[in-house]
Amino acid sequence: MKHRWLTLRRRLLRNRHFEAPFDTLLREDIPSPRTSFMDAEIVSLDIETTALDASRAEMLSVGWVLIRKGMVEMSTADSCVVRPSGDVGGSASVHGLTDTMVESGDDWKLVLGEIIEVLAGRVLLVHHAGLDKALLDRLCRRVYGQPLLVPVIDTLALEHRRLQGRHHIDEQQSLRLADLRQRYSLPRYDAHDCLVDAIATAELLIAMVAHNGGADRARLSSNSTSSAEITVAETSMPFALTSELTAS
Hints:
Shape: globular
CATH topology: Nucleotidyltransferase, domain 5
Number of domains: 1
Radius of gyration: 17 Å
Order of helices and strands: HHEEEHHHEHEHHHEEE
Strand order of the largest sheet: 3-2-1-4-5
Helix content: 25-40%
Number of helices: 9
Number of strands: 8
CATH architecture: 2-Layer Sandwich
Largest sheet: 5 strands, mixed
Structural class: alpha/beta
């Protein structure tokens, strides 16, 4: 969803009654497309789930950290373990979260509320919005009847579009978080820890901006032909700055 339509939909929904913190989220203005990267507050978030299918996956843990003034602000880092409705199944072999570890976790509705609170007035950053953002949309619909109406940056989509724009698409080239970090000369971290992955994604975005002109010249922008993009000097890096609605 383009910035203009996202803003309009949020304004229209302000006339309806929603429980906190969703009502607060709607009343907070989202960053203008002309906001510079240095001025934008971005919430880098990662979710470990019971499955890779957003239509049935449940949250098991969530981690997030803020990017402020173009830097990862570690004092804002936080994470939660989430209690699922069933067992973790085979997903434990991926993230290491066992039934015993998550049985004392927080209720997913409580954690969803915390995520919404931290996103008010900010941009969501994920690596692969098709899972994390789609899952949050589904959970928000269950509680509030609306998807999570926030602008989104997806580092996976960003890199894919950058390569596509330069006609360098290689179907064998991995866009996994760890592989992109290596491509941008970032250190390797242990994967599938929600907070570590949130920090890793934040660092990746900063490196991508630096690689394409630098944070001082980068700004969030949109035009009539694309969802949104970040423009650096004469180079355009398309951003998925969209609420990525799959249904109304």
